[in-house]
Amino acid sequence: MASDLEALLVDIAGHAAAYRDGAGARSASPERTYAQMLERFDQPMPDAGLPTPAVIDELRARVDGGLANMTGPRFFGWVIGASAPAGLAADWLTSAWAQNTGNAHATPAAAACEEIAGRWIVDLLGLPSESSVGFVTGGTMANFTGLAAGRNEVLRRAGWDVESDGLIGAPPIHVVVGEEAHSTVFSALRYLGLGANRAIRVPVDDQGRIRADAFADVVSKLDGPILAAAQAGHINSGAFDPVGEIADLVHAKGGWLHVDGAIGLWALAVPELAHLTQGLAKADSWGGDGHKWLQTPQDIGYAIVRDKHAHRRAMGISASYLPGGDERHPADHVPELSRRARGFSTWAMLRSLGRQGVADMVRRHVGQAQRVAQRLAKAHDVTILNDVVLNQVAVRLGTDLAPDVADRLTAQTVAQIQRDGVCFVGGAAWRGVQIVRVSVIGAGTTDADIDASADAILDAWRRVRSDRGGV
Ligand SMILES: Cc1ncc(COP(=O)(O)O)c(C=O)c1O
Q1: Residues having CB within 6 Å of any atom of ligand 1
Q2: Which residue CA neighbors atom 14 of ligand 1 most closely?
Q3: 128-148 residue pLDDT tens
Q4: Residue 107's domain is classified under what CATH number?
């Protein structure tokens, strides 16, 4: 006879599978607002408990209509993967196994799986084989960890031990980033006591790429420790900074270069994208994301650091109650001590896709991004603002209109597309104008989804333009 636990898990497996299998048929947008969901959940703290099956039923009933369809095939709102089945199933086991993954002796399987999955990532991406990998919550903490290792190392080279002595009195670090670095790079600089506004922001080109000539100019005037950040995959254009050139300039000055590859690091697995990724392996650290292109469930990212000693000096933790030894302890590579075993879903996705599968998926999404761009660009009043080199499409609506009118109508169209629910897209301000952002990233997205979504975007645009623009 099934135990109560088995009955519970079988029951939720049915509900979860129905939810996932129904993703394509459901609206691409949540049907209810945050305010409505808050009202749904807003009850006083209960005095008495409830049997577990009833709790789960109640949870399911309360969330109904308020879940974002992020696993669906027409979700293009942000760069968020669809958490494919292998990663999802491994993640369920991760929860069931409940390994607190800080220490290799405490959780040998989780620690070993993570170590090997990290080696696979480094191998797949062609990064320096000596690199160490920390399994963090996502790109934000990957940037934080890489920049922390860099801060440690450039100060160590200047004769300062920041881990012991802090930043007060330390030689000042020159932080150099692109003008359009992702906001999480600035968050990391804040967390690291380096200040978001103190960073030197190097001018970029029309795709948001750091201009190598401007970077060279800036760096040539700097004296003292340099910590630089470049990106592989711009948030709106998908463009890659000229990392190889930047790395040479930074290294000539004894500095450290971190690459924010939350979106684009996986392009390293695709030979045809070598023109984008050239020189990427010359950096000192890289941030990558599992829950974006690798399609693991939330929340998994990778902090990859060439110098494992610098990585460990920045993140290492020891205490008499934690078993030591020379093994790789997961907690020595991330900001947290206690955390879930992120290696299992990562390993499962890499095992399920293989080298070929990762490359095919990235290649397919790049082709689909180009497909949606071409379909949209056929309209006389729609312009694609970026070179579609990756999975990002930056769409400007109303290019024949006054800029302020086009801005207003573009923002209204994003809201209309979301209300229609055929697909989900986001909006942003880029290069001084309002755009529609289309991020092609879902594991299950087909060409038919792309075509239906392009048509839905144009249809919403036509209605907004004629109904509200009066133009
Ligand atoms: C370029 C870039 N860097 C960093 C991040 C932050 O990653 P995460 O949200 O996984 O922390 C993102 C997220 O969208 C991103 O697009």
Answers
A1: 79, 138-140, 182, 184, 231, 233, 235, 260, 262-263, 289, 301
A2: 79
A3: 999 999 999 999 999 999 999
A4: 3.40.640.10
